[in-house]
Each structure stands twice: as structure tokens, then as C-alpha cells.
Amino acid sequence: MITLFLPLALQAAAATSASAEAGALQPIGRQALPAKGCAAYLWNVADRELVAMATAEAGTLRLAPGGKPIDLSRGEGSGDAALGFTATTVYRGGDISATLDMQIVRDQALTAGAKVPTGTLRIDRPGRDSLVVPVAGMIGCSAR
Questions:
Q1: Which of 111, 134, 109 is nearest to 123 (CA)?
Q2: What is the pTM of this model?
Q3: Could you tell me if 126 and 96 are in contact, meaning their C-beta atoms sit under 8 angstroms apart?
Q4: Residues with Cβ < 8 Å from 60, sequence gap 6 or more?
């Protein structure tokens, strides 16, 4: 009976490995709040894994396409601004471009931050399909 399931288990492991190699967005792990300014912590809506962190002060976006964490630099932004972020921001680094669209909702119950109830993170690379990930999360700000 075990021998019947072994090929299925191997196929699942190969598919997971191929997904990571193909550039799928992987979790970035626990991230600290910056010493100055605000940071947006964004989870993949499908599995609640932390897949991106954007910093307002430093102007970076940390993500892990294919499992390797990288920081992209902020480019242009547009839309309503709140807590150092715009509604739509483009980040770039090397051959990767990422567009973060997020809804920022201020809440009186949050003393140093806001909610991000909906958003999308689009990853573009030359010669590859774009990857679009629905995200949601929170913005936290340093008290300093």
C-alpha cells in the first residue's frame, strides 16, 4: 500500500520544488519593525504566509521570489498617500519589477498604524509570466 503512495508523494515534492524554482513568491519569515518610520507587512491571502514587507522611510520592498529574499528599491508611486505609502507603488531591482497596490484604512483602534484589508502584488521579470498575488496585512509605525 505504501508503494502506491510513494510516487504521488514524490510528484508532490517535485511540484513544490518546481514552483519555488519557477519564481513563486515564498514566505520571507519574521521581520522586525524599522527603527524609524512605518512598514507594511503583507500576507498572501491564500495561505496567510508573510510574503512581503514594504518600508516607508527606506523605500524598499522585501520579498522572496523563488525562496531567496531580496530588497527592491521604491520607484514611482501614485494615489492617496498615508503613513509614507501611496496606493500604488512600483519597486525595482535587477531584472525584477514589483507593483504593490494596497488599500490603506486608518483605524482609531490602531495607535501607530493602519489596516491593509486588500491589495495585490505583481512581480514582473523579462521573458517570464507575471505573478500576481492577492495580499492583505497591517502597517506598523515606530514610536520614535
A1: 134
A2: 0.82
A3: no
A4: 54, 71, 72, 73, 74, 91
